[in-house]
Specification:
With 105 residues, the protein is an all-beta fold. The protein has one domain. It has no helices and eight strands. The protein has a four-stranded mixed beta sheet with strand order 1-2-3-4, with no helix packed on it. Strands 5-6-7-8 form a four-stranded antiparallel beta sheet, with no helix packed on it. The radius of gyration is 13 Å and the shape is globular.
């Protein structure tokens, strides 16, 4: 076998309400809402600073992101996440994999 389903890191968990930031797992992207109507995505910053990241999924606001989950459960966030404060991390998550990028600032 050339690949394993367990090779990816990030997966999506859909939850009904905003999560407690202290209880976020580092390998889960928490999507608040339902499959047809989503509001927010929460995750732990992957740099290890232990900060939580909250992303708007509202297409009518700016900035906003999309979170998708493929058939294997792998998460993709688009566009990239660029933290302007704190650790200033800039990254992509594509098919469950974390991809570090250079900061814009």
């Amino acid at each position: 076998m050339l690949w394993s389903v367990n090779q990816f890191k990030y997966k999506v968990e859909i939850i009904p309400d905003n999560p407690n930031p202290d209880n976020l797992r580092k390998d889960i992207i928490y999507v608040v809402g339902e499959k047809r109507f989503v509001k927010w995505a929460y995750m732990k910053c992957p740099c290890g600073c232990n900060e939580s990241i909250m992303l708007s999924l509202n297409k009518n606001s700016f900035p906003s992101w999309t979170v998708k989950q493929d058939k294997l459960g792998r998460a993709t966030i688009s566009p990239s996440v660029n933290r302007l404060e704190g650790c200033r991390s800039h990254f992509l998550i594509k098919k469950g994999k974390l991809i570090w990028t250079q900061s814009f600032w």
